[in-house]
Amino acid sequence: MHPRQQLENKFFKQGYQYIAGVDEVGRGALAGPIVAAAVVLPRTPRLRNIRDSKSLNPQQREHLYKRIARVALAWSVYSLSATTIDARGISWANREVMIQAVTTLHLIPEFTFIDGLDQKFTFPGQSIVDGDQNVYSIAAASIIAKVSRDAMMRMASYHYPQYAFEQHKGYGTLLHRRRLKQHGPCLWHRRSFLTNVMV
């Protein structure tokens, strides 16, 4: 299913020019950062094949990442480390990365669509459950966030090859759990997430 641009078009018709979509990735991972992206796309051209990053393979995501980056009026990525997640909690980190992704854009969005449950933000916007599956700008942000985080996890794999981060990207797969049991956690692991994992 391809997300529609229906919500964005409603605001474009009212004279808005800068409408952002925001999404995060990595909330449930055992290791690595939580990453959010904000993307401001023009009304036209409407990019084809934009959809939730989870429904795309790595090659499709990389291709669309380049297209989005080329066409976007503005885009930004913000991340918070495992250490910060442990110190402040995942709910705080989830909200903070989305706020920072929006506020670090080089232009100020007039309205923002945010993936997830309703939250209070200081900027004008609307939270939409499953927004990455249904809202065009959020789906674009999900692709930027996912490709960016995957690159970070591949970088981590150079420093900590024993965990195979390049394969599971820090999520709790059987391979990752086995490597954790064998080697113990490293600096990229979220210690607060590891209860009952290393058994």
Describe the protein's architecture and organization.
With 199 residues, the chain is α/β, with parallel strands linked by helices. The protein has one domain: Ribonuclease H-like superfamily/Ribonuclease H (Nucleotidyltransferase, domain 5), CATH 3.30.420. It contains eight helices and five strands. The protein has helices at residues 6-12, 58-71, 82-88, 90-103, 131-134, 136-159, 165-168, 174-183; strands spanning 19-25, 34-40, 74-80, 111-115, 125-128. A five-stranded mixed beta sheet has the order 3-2-1-4-5. A hairpin with an 8-residue loop joins β1 and β2. α3 packs across α4 (90-103). The longest helix is centred in the last third of the chain and has 24 residues, at 136-159. It is globular. The N and C termini lie far apart (40 Å). The model has no long low-confidence stretch (mean pLDDT 93). Pfam families: RNase_HII. InterPro entries: RNase_HII (IPR022898), RNase_HII/HIII (IPR001352), RNase_HII/HIII_dom (IPR024567), RNaseH-like_sf (IPR012337), RNaseH_sf (IPR036397). Endonuclease that specifically degrades the RNA of RNA-DNA hybrids. Residues 17-199 form the RNase H type-2 domain. Its EC number is 3.1.26.4.
